[in-house]
């Protein structure tokens, strides 16, 4: 049974380390949201205009409405690093390993399969004065 990730203390800081900790937490929540499924933890950490965030929320809700889930875990974070850090723009590169995983019905029937592959994303978290939220997720391939 998937366990909801705990918000890391380091992600409460407006710093490079805080941004990296938040991005790693964000991916842990995506993993949880799609394997549980439960979109609720994604909502407060996503900006309302984050299109890819919305897609993860929609997918988690779709899985829930159909009594489906992904199993086992969908991804693991290999590395995260700051690409840009200014007062108005923070960019974090995340290299992920997308794990072999299956979309399962409530009876365990396989509905779809994700093959294992590496993927890189450029993420733009924003600091709103007291917390991080995800603003943009771009696929780097």
Give, in spatial order, the strands making up the sheet with the most strands: 2-3-6-7
| DSSP E strands, number | 7
Q: What global shape is seen? A: globular
Percentage of residues in strands: 35-45%
Number of helices: 2
Can you tell me the residue ranges where pLDDT is under 50 for at least 5 consecutive residues? none
Question: What is the rounded distance between the termini?
Answer: 30 Å
Largest sheet: 4 strands, antiparallel
Assembly state of the chains shown: single chain
Please trace the helix and strand order, writing H or E for each element: HHEEEEEEE
How would you state the average pLDDT, rounded? Answer: 96
* Helix-residue proportion: 10-25%
Provide the number of structural domains: 1
* CATH fold-level topology: Nuclear Transport Factor 2, Chain: A
CATH architecture: Roll
Query: What integer value in Å does the Rg equal?
Result: 15 Å
CATH class descriptor: Alpha Beta
Based on helices, strands and strand pairing, what is the structural class? alpha+beta
Task: Summarize this structure briefly.
The chain has 2 helices and 7 strands; from the N terminus they run ααβββββββ. It is an alpha+beta fold and 141 residues long.
């Amino acid at each position: 049974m998937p366990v909801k990730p705990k918000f890391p203390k380091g992600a409460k800081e407006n710093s490079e380390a805080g941004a990296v900790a938040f991005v790693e937490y964000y991916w842990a929540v995506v993993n949880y949201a799609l394997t549980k499924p439960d979109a609720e933890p994604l909502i407060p950490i996503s900006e309302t205009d984050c299109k890819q965030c919305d897609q993860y929320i929609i997918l988690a809700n779709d899985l829930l409405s159909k009594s489906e889930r992904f199993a086992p875990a969908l991804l693991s974070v290999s590395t995260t690093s700051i690409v840009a850090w200014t007062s108005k723009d923070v960019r974090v590169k995340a290299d992920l390993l997308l794990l072999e995983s299956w979309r399962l019905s409530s009876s365990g029937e396989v509905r779809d399969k994700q093959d294992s592959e590496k993927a890189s994303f450029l993420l733009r978290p924003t600091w709103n004065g007291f917390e991080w939220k995800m603003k943009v997720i771009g696929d780097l391939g």
